[in-house]
């Protein structure tokens, strides 16, 4: 049986103070750190989601990337539940783990914060995206030493071939200290770019 072909319908990047969709810059500013960028971009895109400010940095990064990318992808509410999410990164939730450790390492100043602890798993960012966009399909988060387009390609195709989703939101979302990068893309049966390992690598 001939393998079915899928396409990348849209993609988004966030890095170095710039947010772009399909290669077109939507926002750029001079910010000293990611938190400043996140707050400014949230206002720039007229986002209304107060919980955003309680998120850890990894979830804010994933949320922003999904927010600008999925505005048109999930327009039809009847189909919203049919988008799966497959993300990966290098640092897991280490950025937040450090904050949690700082709150418990001193026995004389032991004050763990539940608001921080809840984000000490990398897949929590998937939950934030799912809540925002009303997604109830399959989801997975993987940790790799480096970006792994082959894994994302085969995993997304597997979900679509098995009809566990009509679309798959894939990509890389990584925050570690001052460094941050998001690359998300949507795979489905229609689109302008062929879904393949070389194309995913090129876009990344």
Features:
Peroxisomal Thiolase, Chain A, domain 1, 7 helices
User: What would you say the CATH architecture is?
Assistant: 3-Layer(aba) Sandwich
Mean pLDDT: 90
Beta-strand level of the residues, as a percent range?
25-35%
The arrangement of helices and strands along the chain is: EEEHHEHHHEHEEEH
- What is the CATH class name? Alpha Beta
How would you describe what is shown here?
The protein has a single domain (7-73, 81-203), classed as 3-Layer(aba) Sandwich (Peroxisomal Thiolase, Chain A, domain 1). Helices cover 34% and strands 25% of the residues. The protein contains seven helices and eight strands; from the N terminus they run βββααβαααβαβββα. Strands 1, 2, 3, 4, 5, 6, 7 and 8 form an eight-stranded mixed sheet that branches. Strand 1 and strand 2 form a beta hairpin. The mean pLDDT is 90.
Lay out the secondary structure.
Blueprint: E1 7-15, E2 18-21, E3 24-28, H1 34-44, H2 57-70, E4 83-89, H3 94-104, H4 114-117, H5 124-133, E5 139-143, H6 149-161, E6 167-176, E7 179-188, E8 193-194, H7 197-203
Parallel strand pairs: 4-5, 4-6
Antiparallel strand pairs: 1-2, 1-7, 1-8, 2-3, 6-7
Helix pairs in contact: 1-2, 2-5, 6-7
